[in-house]
Amino acid sequence: MSTSEASTFDVVGAPARTTVVAAPRAAAASVLVSSAIVAREAVVVALLVAGLTALLAPRDFGAAVAPHPGWAAVILLAARYGSRGFGFALVAVCGALTLTALAIGVSLGPLLAAAGNSVPDLTALAVSVLVAWISSAHERRIGDLSARGAELAHKSTGDDATVAELRDAAVALRARADRLDHSVTFIRDVAARLEGADSLLGSQAALELAIARTGARAGIVQLIDDRGRLRTVASLGAWTLLRARPPDVLLDRTIKAAFDSAAPVRAIDLPEAGHDRSDVATPITDEVGEVLGVMALRGVPADSLCHALVHDLGLIAGWCAKTNTPRSFVLDQTTPRSPEPARQPPPPPAEDSPPPGSQRFN
CA separation (Å) from 214 to 170, 175, 177, 208, 217? Predict the structure, then answer.
């Protein structure tokens, strides 16, 4: 994952992508000193140099000193602000010295001639240019590094948000995975029954897998009988507080909506679904889209009613449809298939068998 492009994962849907816009390099220029400040400092230094020169050497204005003391101010500002400092300082110092000399009546001709023929002054000029060039290179490097730092800081902010979202997604996925029994025996048993030829065993296996996937309290699988009615063939869990097992024919608005629409339906999406209804129901359809039955769940946690898990229930129902054939399934049981052992009355005694508790004597 690149730092300029982050992915936010949502456990209830497709991943949403967020593009992190890099900070413009012009924003880093704000850390540099403005030209107005450089010009103001150059004027202040030039006035200070002109004042000291007029005070200490009023006759020759420092021309006897080689190089001129004013070059110290130019080199100082050139080292501080680069080419901008060199330009502003040179102009300000020359202008201040010229105006001061004119103000006190000193002739500029001999001073300019002496400065033009002075090798130390020319050397000081060359040194000032070299210092300004080096300082400007450092200033440009500082600007580039500042822009890069601002860009990386902006990207790291997006990465921190991405890491937090990934951590939340990992926690949610771990909580979801904890609800699923990862036992190899369980998965192998479910797969074997779903791939088998017994529709009742396949329905029961699909129901067990759906409940393990969602953490629901109870579930039911209803298939269409020979008369076109939905009848219960498999159930698991306590259906209601008053009835552990669902009836053979069940009136449930969620199941009816899923059967009529041939699409997964949640109770929260139905208007006035009532209290005695399934939380989610998904149709069992064949390859051509014909509805063979419905699988419904009750007591589903709120976080398991997301669209991703509803889609998984549809896949499980489609897997369950492989063991059923359209309109040809005929129920041969009056009670739904359940993992609990069937409680059947004992067979009636034979006519010639003695009654219980009696003995036959020969």
Answer: 17, 11, 10, 10, 9
